[in-house]
Amino acid sequence: MTSQSTWYETAVTDxxxxxxxxxxxxxxxxxxxxxxxxxTRISGGTLTRIIEPIGIKPEAIRVALHRLRxxxxxxxxxxxxxxxxxxxxxxxxxxxxxxxxxxxxTPVMAEHWHLLIAEDxxxxxxxxxxxxxxxxxxxxxxxxxxxxPTDHAGALLVLAISPQTAPTWLQDRLCPQELRASCQTLLAxxxxxxxxxxxxxxxxxxQSATLRTLLVHRWRRVVLRQPDLPPAFYPPDWAGPACRExxxxxxxxxxxxxxxxxxxxx
Amino acid sequence: MTSQSTWYETAVTDxxxxxxxxxxxxxxxxxxxxxxxxxTRISGGTLTRIIEPIGIKPEAIRVALHRLRxxxxxxxxxxxxxxxxxxxxxxxxxxxxxxxxxxxxTPVMAEHWHLLIAEDxxxxxxxxxxxxxxxxxxxxxxxxxxxxPTDHAGALLVLAISPQTAPTWLQDRLCPQELRASCQTLLAxxxxxxxxxxxxxxxxxxQSATLRTLLVHRWRRVVLRQPDLPPAFYPPDWAGPACRExxxxxxxxxxxxxxxxxxxxx
Lengths: 266, 266
Prior knowledge:
Shape of chain A: globular
Number of helices of chain A: 11
CATH topology of the largest domain in chain A: Arc Repressor Mutant, subunit A
Strand content of chain A: 5-15%
Largest interface: A-B, 29 and 29 residues
Structural class of chain A: alpha+beta
CATH architecture of the largest domain in chain A: Orthogonal Bundle
Number of strands of chain A: 7
Low-confidence stretches of chain A: none
Number of domains of chain A: 2
Distance between the termini of chain A: 24 Å
Strand order of the largest sheet of chain A: 5-6-4-7
Helix content of chain A: 40-55%
CATH superfamily of the largest domain in chain A: Winged helix-like DNA-binding domain superfamily/Winged helix DNA-binding domain
Oligomer: homodimer
Largest sheet of chain A: 4 strands, antiparallel
Mean pLDDT of chain A: 92
């Protein structure tokens, strides 16, 4: 075992989510990162070889693919002995919807914020809006949103705001300890991996794909946990911006494998 | 009975608060309007002659004066057979605090508004602030205030706002139907009284004092019910501005009686 393969193995371990990782969600991250373009197929063999190093068994991959097909995310076909998987239009739309937020090098900060305030004890309209729009709950009857207020048929008090500071309870509510810790841990892992990388190491396309999958998957679980908040709403120890930068820098050194690599039957 | 005395009697009836009027509160209105200057005394006889036309019995006046003395609002002394009453410093301060809001010809509209939002289930700090500061409750954990936010030791979310519209439930909460009705009724009464006034009628100082007392007392009970709200928070049928104008126009035609009149033993 060379020091380079040792480094790669350590990097895989280090970048693997220490918490329970759902296989279907890893596969969604992988397709979103490498096979979001219409018609980009990933063969069953390639999928297994990208994901197996993470410690996910072929049987778990088969179960996850079954679920993703059932939920309308992917379609599969078979050419001889080779199975191939592709995002459905629904899956591609879902993926495309969050891609800008995952890959933005600087978060897209909303310029205009507003509050929706419901009457005490009469929060149905607000709850309905929150189900289908990107609002951030501030309290039982108060929600924060960006851009133009959602139509609410006059049921809510709407107030334009420019948040300047936020109390600790709100920062804790929007960025719970456990999310802050996940972000800190990912930041530390990406920095360790980047620092320890042997000079001149070049990943194989599959190694690159595995590391990209790990990185995108973990970052996605941090960055998509809440909408982009006004800066004042983040706690002082929020490592989000540093983590974003570190993740993007590492991704830059890991080329996306070509469509041919992905669809290779091998 | 001349048409002028008939008009005066009708005006008194029309301007008398149709709802239960607390005598001590009528006396507070009277002192605030005519005897707020330090040392301005009102004799017991004059007080009775101002208030009796409203239908308040001398015995009720004695009880109310006793209560106001006990609460530290007024002091009484006696010169021979003449009792005299004067606002205490406390009473004068209380009176002075609300005088600008009662007599303003255009309401003093705050330029800057802000919200205080408490954490769900942790509203103690907000409740404490609302006890001692002029905040308007919007909900269980949301309050509206003007000017510079009150110090709250970082316990609350503070947001500068410019209210543009308000939903019906909020208008109803801040200006309940019964307050709107009181305002409408007072507006109608002042307009009727002003319109029906015989040409060239000049009130005696005591008639003027009685009508002023009635007017100020009723308007005070409307205008001091809530802090001055952002215009958007008033319901469309809120008659406040028209009522204010009509009350002030009528007051302008009713000269304040002189200190001599008030302290006359007669």
